[in-house]
Amino acid sequence: MNHYDIIIIGGGITGTAIAHECSKYKLTAALLERGTDIGIGATKGNGGVVHPGYDPTPGSLKAKINVQGANLYPKLAKDLNFGMINPGIFVIGFTDADEVALKHKLEFGIKNGVRDLAIINADQMRNREPHLAANAKHALYAPTATVVDPFEVAIAFAENAKANGVAILMSQPVTAIQKRRDGSFLINTPDRQLSCSYIVNAAGNHADNVASLAGISEYQMKPRHGDLLVLDKDMANKPQTVIFPCPRPDTKGIACIPTVHGNTIVGSTATMMDDKEAVNNYAPGIQALIDGVHKILPELDASKIIRTFAGLRPVVLDNNNDFFIAESQTVSGFIHAAGIQSPGVAAAPAIAEQVRDLLDNAGLKMIPKLDYNPYREKRIVFADLSIDQQDALIHQNPAYGRIVCRCETVTEGEIIDAIHGVIPAQTLDAVKRRTRAGMGRCQSGFCQYKVIAILSRELGLPVSDICLEDRGSQQLCGPVKGGVK
Length: 485
Ligand SMILES: Cc1cc2nc3c(=O)[nH]c(=O)nc-3n(C[C@H](O)[C@H](O)[C@H](O)COP(=O)(O)OP(=O)(O)OC[C@H]3O[C@@H](n4cnc5c(N)ncnc54)[C@H](O)[C@@H]3O)c2cc1C
Fold this sequence. Notes:
- This protein is of the alpha+beta class.
- Among the domains are: 154 residues, D-Amino Acid Oxidase, Chain A, domain 2, CATH 3.30.9.10; 84 residues, BFD-like [2Fe-2S]-binding domain (Arc Repressor Mutant, subunit A), CATH 1.10.10.
- Helix content is 30%, strand content 22%.
- It is built from twelve helices and 22 strands.
- Strands 1, 2, 9, 10, 11, 12, 19 and 20 form an eight-stranded mixed sheet that branches.
- Strand 19 and strand 20 form a beta hairpin.
- The radius of gyration is 23 Å and the shape is globular.
- The relative contact order is 0.16.
- The site of flavin-adenine dinucleotide has 44 residues, from helix 1, strand 13, strand 18 and helix 8.
């Protein structure tokens, strides 16, 4: 049986950021993820905004960690080679009451330590965003706000952690946890038994269930559901800035978000749910998004929607909407990184530092590794290369000359790289998250059967075993015409 100093449960952006932080120190660590890939919980269902930190109440844990996390992103994006854009945020006000609320957020931001915030007037807003609603009067402008692709960040954290010695184990749902007399933990998954000295619980919406496996009942959780829309890259009047309306106490409101890849996201609704797996979209939610975005950008063309998706924010109940990051009061050595609702993406790098300090306080000596490598190599993105670079690459390996996804210009070579990558892509959605094959306008209508064939060939599996994501999500039940066997 393998023993680790630390076992992290959950491979979302929180768990992978913690794995990345732990990989800097002389210790042994493993991350257990129940799904077939990294980042398949809340981490794949959000807007990707790295909020600068004007929203959380000053003095809250969320406020401190949000600002710290956002400040860590620029260096991480360089070191780990993930995409990040800096569109800034407008929070739009329409009425005098909104102006008061925006000034309130400005004060929050200044107290929380956010740089360069300002209230701007209608002309200043329209210089940058000419298609804003005619009745928009003023905005809180946060020029430092950035946007990332959240699952790219989680994969980058996990790949770098693995390269620096952390075991990243997929399809490992934790089903039992036992605290032993010597203080260590015994952890069971359906096909493994492992032991460790410290547990970090980063299980997202299931953090309370995982805690209860260790006999801990310090909080209860419910998910807050959010619908989102993706709009085509080819759209007139695209906003350059992330645009939010004036926030409500339970939500930042329906925003329009430019993405790293040139699409536009509209999100999100906010509805408390009981079902922790309910990532369906709901018709009233979609309508609320369209109506909501038209209040800030009336000309936005809803016929350009190419996909809808949803995510569940992990909320710890009766906790003032704050994160719950602490060592258990009843089981020593068990650290909670729970209730990581929005802005969990922005906060993730700082949550990891907070967990590091909690582990250190709990008795694990964090001694820096001298051979830690902070860099992750950039993957080949054929579409981003010059014609000369593309020619040279095809000459070296003809697989880069075969376009599989024509919407996003993704080649067979890139798909093969993803399947054999540091954290190998084993499913259609895992290939999609790494390469963007299937993310374009046709949403995989033209390329899915080709990606199935490549996965089948590279993994040595029949096409009927290739899944979309989870077990049981096969797309084919046998051979079909056209070469997919
Ligand atoms: C609609 C919406 C919009 C949002 N927009 C933003 C935004 O713009 N900016 C921002 O900063 N934040 C945003 N967020 C919040 C952000 O998505 C979350 O804070 C973040 O993704 C939480 O990550 P996590 O790793 O804690 O949880 P998750 O990503 O859910 O990861 C938890 C992981 O634990 C695994 N797991 C569960 N049980 C077990 C088990 N028993 N054994 C092993 N593994 C297990 C799950 O499979 C999952 O992969 C948004 C959220 C939503 C829903």
